[in-house]
Write a structure and sequence with these properties.
The structure holds two protein chains of two kinds. Chain A is an alpha+beta fold. Chain A is built from 16 helices and 19 strands. In chain A, helix 9 packs antiparallel against helix 11, helix 14 packs antiparallel against helix 15 and helix 15 packs antiparallel against helix 16. Helix content of chain B is 80%, strand content 0%. Chain B has 13 helices and no strands. The longest helix of chain B has 38 residues. Classes of the chains: A alpha+beta, B mainly alpha. Chains A and B meet through helix 1 and helix 7 of A and helix 5, helix 7, helix 10 and helix 11 of B.
Chain lengths: 512, 306
């Protein structure tokens, strides 16, 4: 029987079915290895919604504008400057002498082709929604492009950091299908080989216009299991991993092989309350109950003790790193007596029972533990939660989207990596939006005002009003801005990125 | 024998048609596919357009016929998620899984056969009890835990093997052992009880009476007969093995089709789900067909009885 099975696998081998993948020639010294949890669908970033696509896109493509990770400000990328010609026209000057990986020079025609492709509804590209405010792009000359927008578009520059520039020639000559697996960008690395669900091998673009990467090769490995990622990191198989759970930080720091680094990231966590009664009548339609809930919980101690300090307390849903954040609005602090009084005033002297939907810890680390702590605090003032757990992120998001989140549920928002208050207010607070359980005409008016002017000073004032309103009305239970934790090998230097976009081209080797 | 083969083949075709109907039905059990495909704010007009585009306005049997006739040619449509043909995606990912499952099978046999025979021959001895203990432990240990323990010992502590990945022979020692350890216990128990039962049979006594050496009695007479249930169960266990492969592939970052199938279910990527269900079912069914043929070759009673 052993012989039989052996000859069976020999047969499979002979059929070429089992041929192991070829190993490219690179040494450990000239290769940096980065691990991600799941593979992306394609190498066509505007045709994908995954963070992995954004991250890998940064390596092979460039954007018109780029964020300086130290200051958080947006600066030049493939565009060297931009200005408003009028309220609805942006003019962009492009960098000279930039070439695509296939040798064709980059110019305004490529900018136009990129946006024409993304904006054409026939192409069904997922990036279209991000640029819906752009009406058209015109080529002024080889290195100048003009964008016509539908009304004033203050987020224009922010959004320029999120759209990769693709080649007009490739679109015309090779087409959509080919572009799914063959990226031709202007970026610091070129794709050598994509072994699906296994790894991406990138090689340095020696003709790159910007600072060239120190490591000749970048390998991006797909390792679904977190425990395996950590084992790879501390055994030297991988140099950078992200989303390390708080309870695993010690394992890495004590290994002698690697260390952890954390950075605030553009994601705010909250407990949404169904003020809008989307899932039916509930106690949180009364502002007194919402205030009581905010007063009941000692968030600072939860941040300190449950998540090892990996959070920055926020007064509302607006993240401290987003444009428009107002530090003068102070967060609620725990006051159980006041909470009980408010509950009694609202007609619940003996407390009240509410449903509480919780999900898996995929985007927010240790969310189960923090939820437990929060419901214990709520319970003390008389808000007794009845938990319901949904373990898969897809169905969880669908429940919330379809208005079945219930009176109270876990939620966090990543701003689509746009560092602006509008990027959370519109989707999570505006009446009638898919992920909003709050409805307030006064707020809606402010949100619309905020996105309709290019005057940043005026916008700052509008968002100050917004945060005051959100705090006074206790729309949701406000939690904190998240911090991400990275695991970094001791053989390299790498700064944890605040926009959650890892950039292997900034990695340098550590001096011994 | 010819009639037997023919009958098995007809059964095989019936099973495959059944599976294709099931996998076709997946789409309808889970609700309206158009709603899944379209963004939430899509209008009624767009809905109707997609409805027609996907051919959902036609009667069910017409839709099934279209699905089946295309599937036979390897056309399961494009993956909704990856925007590439589903058939190609699944085929690309098939070899690593076949590689892993056959290695797991061989490992399981390498563990189960010697231990099972030994346990049967030395019944109720210390050795037999030890084997039973190993079997119980092996069956009780969750596969992902075993995988992570192996990684901690061999990759992190000893630095002898790569922790995960795919490509060289070193990469596949731990996953193969992991999967083998998952299948070995049940196989070992079967071999043991098979050999025990056969050793009490009349023809073994006859063989011994003829003066055949004990070694030959075990190998030629006892083992051949004890093999039949083992082979049958191994065929049936292949599905289990694929189940184990999902966990093993995840732990060891192995780029196989088992994880692709699970990911596609998560992503609601139905063309890929349908394609992998049909192809994996085809694989299991053909393996069972081969198993039936092997058993028939070994055991004349089966082919004559047919």
């Amino acid at each position: 029987m052993g012989r039989l099975a052996a000859s069976g696998s020999a047969l499979l081998l002979a059929l070429g079915l089992l041929a192991p993948a070829e190993v490219p020639a690179q040494t450990k010294d000239d290769t940096v290895v980065y691990a991600i949890q799941s593979d992306m669908q394609n190498w066509d970033p505007p045709n994908s919604v995954l963070r992995e696509s954004i991250i890998l896109g940064y390596h092979v493509f460039d954007h018109l504008a780029a964020r300086d990770l130290k200051t958080g400000k947006v600066g030049p990328g493939l565009a060297v400057s931009w200005r408003n010609v009028d309220d609805t026209t942006w003019e962009v000057k492009l960098r000279k002498g930039v070439k695509f990986h296939d040798g064709t020079p980059f110019g305004a025609k490529d900018v136009k082709a990129t946006f024409d492709r993304v904006l054409n509804p026939e192409n069904k590209l997922t990036a279209r929604g991000n640029h819906a405010k752009i009406k058209s792009v015109e080529v002024v000359d080889d290195l100048t492009a003009r964008f016509k927008t539908d009304g004033p578009y203050p987020l224009f520059v922010e959004r320029m950091t999120a759209q990769v520039m693709q080649s007009e020639k490739v679109m015309k000559e090779k087409g959509h299908e080919w572009m799914q697996e063959n990226p031709i960008g202007t970026g610091p690395y070129k794709l050598v080989k994509w072994s699906k669900k296994q790894e991406h091998l990138l090689v340095r673009n020696d003709d790159y216009w910007g600072p060239k990467p120190q490591f000749k090769y970048a390998r991006i490995r797909i390792i679904p299991e977190q425990a395996t990622q950590i084992a790879e990191l501390i055994s030297g198989g991988v140099d950078v991993i992200k989303a390390v759970p708080p309870d695993q930080m010690d394992v890495i720091n004590k290994s002698g092989q690697a260390r952890t680094a954390s950075s605030p990231i553009l994601r705010t966590a909250m407990l949404q309350l169904d003020q809008a009664a989307r899932s039916g009548p509930n106690p949180f339609t009364d502002v007194r109950v919402r205030k009581a809930a905010n007063l009941a919980v000692d968030m600072n101690s939860i941040i300190k003790h449950v998540i090892n300090g990996l959070g920055d307390r926020t007064a509302t849903v607006v993240n401290p790193m987003a444009f428009g954040f107002d530090p003068s609005v102070k967060p609620y602090t725990q006051d159980a007596a006041a909470a009980k009084k408010l509950l009694a005033e609202a007609g619940y002297p003996n407390g009240v029972e509410v449903g509480f939907l919780t999900g898996p810890p995929i985007v927010e680390p240790a969310v189960q533990q923090t939820s437990e702590a929060i419901s214990a605090d709520l319970d003390k003032v008389g808000i007794r939660t009845k938990k319901r757990y949904v373990g898969e992120i897809g169905p969880y998001v669908n429940l919330v989207r379809d208005g079945k989140g219930g009176p109270m549920f876990e939620w966090s928002w990543g701003y689509y990596s746009v560092f602006d208050a509008d990027a959370i207010l519109y989707d999570v607070m505006k009446c009638g939006e898919a992920y909003s359980y709050y409805c307030n005409k006064a707020l809606d008016d402010l949100i619309i005002q905020g996105r309709s002017t290019l005057d940043q000073k005026q916008r700052t004032e509008i968002y100050q009003k917004v945060q005051k309103l959100l705090s006074d009305d206790a729309a949701y239970i406000y939690k904190w801005g998240l911090r991400g934790v990275w695991g970094i090998s001791n053989r390299i230097e790498y700064a944890a990125p605040r926009d959650e976009v890892d950039r292997m081209f900034t990695v340098t080797s550590r001096k011994k | 024998m010819k009639r037997y083969v023919l009958r098995q083949l007809v059964q095989l075709v019936v099973v495959i048609i059944g599976i294709s109907i099931l996998s076709f039905g997946i789409l309808y059990v889970l609700g309206d596919p158009v709603l899944l495909l379209l963004p939430q704010n899509a209008g009624k007009e767009e809905y109707e357009r997609y409805h027609r585009l996907l051919g959902l306005d036609k009667p069910l049997y017409v839709q099934y016929w279209k699905f089946a006739s295309k599937a036979v040619q390897g056309d399961f449509g494009k993956s909704w998620y990856a925007d590439t043909p589903a058939f190609r995606l699944v085929l690309e990912r098939m070899p690593p899984t076949l590689y892993l499952t056959s290695a797991g099978l061989v490992t399981a046999l390498l563990i189960a056969l010697p231990l099972g025979i030994l346990a049967a021959l030395k019944r109720h001895s210390f050795l037999d009890n030890l084997c039973t203990m190993i079997a119980v432990a092996g069956q009780a240990v969750p596969i992902f835990w075993l995988g992570i323990m192996l990684i901690i010992i061999f990759a992190v502590r000893l630095k002898a093997l790569p922790a995960s990945g795919y490509g060289t022979w070193q990469h596949f020692l731990m996953p193969a052992f992991c999967l083998g350890a998952f299948l070995a216990p049940i196989t070992m128990r079967l071999v043991r009880s098979g050999v025990v039962e056969v050793m009490n049979m009349e023809f073994i006594k006859t063989a011994r009476a003829k003066g055949v050496g004990e070694r030959m009695v075990v190998i030629k007479h006892a083992f051949r007969n004890a093999c039949i249930p083992v082979i049958t169960v191994l065929g049936l266990q292949f599905g289990q093995l694929l189940g184990g492969a999902i966990v093993t592939e995840t732990v060891f970052a192995w780029p196989g089709v088992a994880t692709l199938a699970v990911d596609s279910i998560r992503n609601q990527d139905f063309p890929v789900v349908q394609c992998s269900v049909v192809l994996l079912a085809l694989l299991i069914v053909s393996i069972n067909f081969v198993v039936d043929m092997i058993v028939a070759l070994i055991d004349p009673r089966i082919r004559v009885g047919a």
